[in-house]
Hints:
The complex is a heterodimer. Chain A is an all-beta fold. In chain A, 0% of the residues lie in helices and 48% in strands.
Amino acid sequence: MVIEFFDVNDRESPKNVTALRVVGQGQTITVNTLADRTNLNLITVPLKTSEDRTGFLLISNSDDNDDGSEIGNIDTVTFDYARLEDFKSRACGFIVNYEELTGTLQTDTNNWIQEVEIIRSEIINSDSTHVKIYH
Amino acid sequence: MLKYIISLAFFLGIISLAAQSKSIDTQSKDTVVYEQAYGLRVGIDLSRLVMSSLNENYTGLELVGDYRITQDLYLAAELGNENKTQQEDLYEFNTTGSYLKIGVDRNTYANWYGEQNLIFYGGRLGFSTFGNTINNYQIFDNNRYWNPEGFATASETPEEFNGRTASWIEALFGTKVELLPNIYLGASIRLGFLFTDANEGRFPILYVPGFNKVTWDSKFGVGYNYSISYFLPLYKKKNKVKKIAGEAVE
Lengths: 135, 250
């Protein structure tokens, strides 16, 4: 799934997230598809193939304090979808495509994310942007 | 004495004249006619028997038969049944079904006197009815973030696809050698072209009984058999002599 970050005040212009770190909800390691703690405006994240919901902790200005705990701003976005199994090839077997994608931002006292917008609700490949996040 | 010699010479001359008067037949007709046996040959495919005993994931049986209709031409058929379970990387499936192939073989081998061997080419129309079962499968994902230990198991419950059919044509090349009187050992290799669209539906056709493996994105397949068969002679018929073109007809 491809997520692009835009400026909430100028909705057409991409805007980097400073020192972005992405952790899958329930995981202890960062997502392996992007460089950790770099300034990015476009990321690709993997969705679960075995469940209809995947959550991500999106952390801006990510950094550790002296005792190793995160001091960046953590926002949680949950994606819900329906999974469609598709027989890809003799070698691969079945893969999962996604449809009816929705994204929900968990509100907290200090959200850095302002809005989550679904651009394409079907995910068959990673060629185009599926989600726009304004901040 | 001279008189005797003269009369003997005269006599011999008459004999020789008499013998000469009847021309020598240098092209006498051979009255022994060689008749070729015509009949039905039935047998069984040995390779499927051997595979069934060696491979616990396979059982198969194929009956083969041909019926001689002319000097070179045979009507031929195969009737079989296969049950095969295959474990691929991320899924295991079973194919069970029956098949029938009907066609002709043309012998190209010029037998010596008394021989009845075949080196033949032929064609078949094949038809199979079968069912698939996916025993279990996992979901392939090129990113392993959520499942570092292995691919996510999607189902352990067998899922059945019944009532599937496939048809194809086959070109084959083979031989049948008379090993003992009326006992033939045969082998053939086959190139098939599948008519049926293998990629329809949720689970594609990956194996067709009789056709063999269906290669991804290809209509072609290869097969073989090794048969042992018994020839049941029904009647004998003389081989028709072919007239050579241009030869004067008397």
